[in-house]
Amino acid sequence: MAKSPSATEKQPGFFSQLRSLFRFTREIYPWLPWAQIALLVAGVLIGLIVGYVIPPFQIWSLVLWGITGLLLGVLGAMFLMTRLSTTAMYRKIDGMPGAAGHVLSTSLGRSWQGSEMPVGVNPKSQDAVYRAIGRGGIVVVAEGARGRLTRLVKDEKTKAMRVAQGVPVNVFYVGHGDDDVSIDKLAKTIKKLPKAIDNATMAAVIKRMESVSQSVASLPIPKGIDPLKTRAPRPR
């Protein structure tokens, strides 16, 4: 009997994931290897200094402190790579169609529900409007040129205010203008919204909005984001 693809395909190992994460981050930050080496050397030096200063001075104690410093340097190098990988992911998807949906579906946490599928699309320009619902109310995120997004934003905001009366509706435009929110700050901006509804109301609003949402499955959805290629791989 032939094995299913899921049974034959091997999941990438820990070191394989680390290697992928390193390569992904180095594409945006070529100086990453040198920074990691500096952290390793600094960790060893700090360990040796501590081992030399703390009495009594013994060779084995100095070696142990040096190893401890090396381990701290490894942790620092991995922490730096992890933090930079997130920034690298945002820089890579910045300006790509579908970036806002990618953030809403992966970076808001449990207090919010968002989808990578837009709730409104301009088929010609690929300008799109996305929606997220959470304890802070309803958020409408517009991606594209403001002038072409006016009608899409107005329609979605009107629908949200009609279906969920009394629930605050916030609109954010993704971009780099004076009143825009950059893609790397979108999730943080949404999560900073003050809590306006409880969990029960949030669940009810989600159900109402889903029941009245117009299906956009037949519309050309922006294809600019491939999560498998843009999301920074994280070691398990």
What's the SSE blueprint?
Blueprint: H1 5-8, H2 14-28, H3 32-53, H4 59-93, H5 99-106, E1 112-114, E2 120-121, E3 128-134, E4 137-143, H6 146-163, E5 169-174, H7 186-191, H8 199-212, H9 227-230
Parallel strand pairs: 4-5
Antiparallel strand pairs: 1-3, 2-3, 3-4
Helix pairs in contact: 2-4, 3-4
What does this protein look like?
The protein is of the alpha+beta class and about 240 residues long. The protein has two domains: about 10-95, no CATH class; about 100-215, no CATH class. About 55% of the residues lie in helices and about 10% in strands. It is built from nine helices and five strands, in the order αααααββββαβααα. Strands 1, 2, 3, 4 and 5 form a five-stranded mixed sheet that branches. Helix 2 packs across helix 4 and helix 3 runs antiparallel to helix 4.
A few lines on this structure:
This protein has about 240 residues and is α+β, with helices and mostly antiparallel strands.
